[in-house]
Structures are given as structure tokens and as C-alpha cells.
Amino acid sequence: MKTLSGKSALITGSTSGIGLGIARALSDAGANVVLNGFGDVLAAKEFVGQAGGKVIYHGADLSHPDQIADLMRYAEKEFGSIDILVNNAGIQHLAPVEDFSTERWNSIIALNLSAGFHTTRLAVPSMKKKNWGRIVNIVSVHGLVASSHKSAYVAAKHGMIGLTKGVALELAQTGITCNAICPGWVLTPLVEQQITSKAAQQGISYAEAQSQLLLEKQPSGVFVTPEQIGALLLFLCSDAAAEVRGAAWNIDGGWIAQ
Ligand code: NAD
Asked: What are phi and psi of 56, to 5 degrees?
């Protein structure tokens, strides 16, 4: 069903992984979609645009606020407004806190936290004009609980949940909602890197490292999929979710139930 016909969506970091799956779900539901990210743009456009609305791309590096402003201007010029904003782009780096470089810290905070502030502040005025909007932040279980060696990531993701709640409250008497989705392990390039380095560090196979990584944290032992996250996001975009405000919704194979 084309429940989002006539709506426009911007999904940051949507050339691979979770963002790509979400872009496809939104496009399948009839939305026009703005893609962003550093992956294979042609393949992403082809995959996303198969069934749905118009698909365009902007290559902003979201660690730079001026490039974010350019992306937002481009999206509004092409589609008139951004009705659905999905803050998804994110990076990861693992190191003990005493070895965590300042440069890595700054780049993770810039992308995983500050970029979401900038896109939100720039998207809200046109959402307010229509009195309708959906802001969905793809956070992580690491917005709710911590793991070691991920200080910047955990700090940024906890910050995103705070931003989600604050924005949701400011907009509580409007038709604009702001919520967070908190996935557990999803098999994407971001996680494949972690499996590869775990296998190298421990001298075990990729398959063994993958199964250990899952079972250490995710009781189901099964990866969450981008399609499942896309389906949850479509629900948050629906009228049925109009009073879901400031939620941090985990989809994590039981990770934070422990
Ligand atoms: P991914 O590496 O597949 O995708 C990240 C996307 O962000 C890519 O399109 C990449 O090109 C883009 N990107 C990276 N740096 C960018 C920059 N400076 N400017 C613009 N785009 C940039 O990763 P993923 O696993 O799909 O992660 C997507 C989001 O989901 C991230 O915020 C991540 O923290 C979160 N998340 C992932 C998992 C998981 O298990 N994969 C779990 C919980 C949360």
C-alpha cells in the first residue's frame, strides 16, 4: 500500500546497510526519497527506486554542518519539503578509553550526534508549516546500555536518545513526532568490520567470530534485518503512531531484556 504517497523522506547514510533498507521501505510505501552516503550510489538508487517514488541523491559529508545545510536546501528545493527525516548515518571505532584518539572521538560525535541536531533544526520549520512530520533517529541499543571499548559511540548514542526526547517534548502539541529506533546487531558493513577484526585478534574463523559476537549480547542468536527496521519505521510514520512521542524502541533479539 502506498501509504506515504506525496510525502518526501531524507535518510542520511542510505547507500548501505540499515539506511538503504529504510530508504527502500519508504520508497515502496510511495515516498519520494533523498539518499545520502559514501557507498555505491548507482546501485543504491536502483535498489531503492524499484517500486516507488522519485529517488535523488546528495553526497554531503555530515560531519560538516555547512554540507548538512546544503543537503537540506537541496532536498527542499527538489521536493518542496522534507516530511520524514531519518537520522541514520553513523560510524564506529573500538579502543579502550585511554587509547581512544581525540580525532576519532570528534568524528564520531560529529556524525553520530551533532549531525542529527543540525538536520533536525533545519527540517522542523517546514514540518511546522504543514503541521506534520516524522523524525526517526536510528540510534542503537548502545543508546540504552553500554559495551566496553566504544566510549564515543555509546556517548553519542545516549546523546541521541536525549535529543530525541527533548525534540519530542518541544513538538508534543504539533503533528510532528520524534522517536528513536534502537537496533541490536544487524549484519551490515559496520558490523562486518567488527567481526573481521575480532576474527583476526583471536585467530578464529569469520564464522566463529560472527557466532561469538551474536551470542555475547543478542539472546536470539539471530541478526535483526534492515527490512524489519524499515517495517518498524513505517509504523512510526503511520497515523496509528501519531501519539508515539519520544520513544526509544529497541529491536534487538532480547539484548536489553537481560
Ligand atoms: P553502514 O556502514 O552500512 O552504513 C553507514 C552509512 O553512513 C553508509 O551509507 C555510509 O556511507 C554513511 N556515512 C558514513 N560516514 C558518513 C558521513 N560522514 N557523511 C554521510 N554519510 C556517511 O552502517 P549500518 O550498520 O547500516 O549503520 C547505520 C546506523 O545504524 C548507524 O547510525 C549505526 O550506528 C546504527 N546501528 C547499527 C547497528 C548494526 O548492528 N549494524 C546496530 C545498531 C545501530
From this structure: -125, 170
In a domain, 2, yes or no: no
191 lines ligand 1 (CB under 6 A): yes
Closest ligand 1 atom to residue 38 Cα is 11
Residue 253 lies in a domain: yes
CB 78 within 8 A of CB 56: yes
Q: Are residues 123 and 192 in the same domain?
A: no
Does residue 136 sit in helix, strand or coil?
A: strand
**Mean pLDDT, residues 158-175 taken together:** 99
Distance CA 245, CA 236 (A): 9
Q: What is the pLDDT of residues 14-32, one digit of tens each?
A: 999 999 999 999 999 999 9
- The residue whose CA is least distant from atom 34 of ligand 1 is 90
Same domain for 213 and 87?
A: no
Contacts of 75 (CB under 8 A, 6+ apart): 8, 10, 34, 56, 58, 82
Based on the domain organization, do 215 and 103 belong to the same domain?
Answer: no
Residue 50 has pLDDT above 90, yes or no: no
Number of domains forming the structure of the chain: 2
- 61 in contact with ligand 1, CB cutoff 6 A: yes
A 10 A CB-CB count for 38 gives 11
pLDDT on residue 53: 78
206 is catalytic: no
Supply the range of the domain harboring residue 20: 8-186+224-257
Cβ-proximal residues to 203 (8 Å cutoff; 6+ apart), any chain: none
What does the pLDDT look like over 120-146, one tens digit per residue?
999 999 999 999 999 999 999 999 999
Contact criterion met (CB below 8 Å) for 232 and 251: yes
Give the dihedral sign, CA 86/92/97/101.
negative
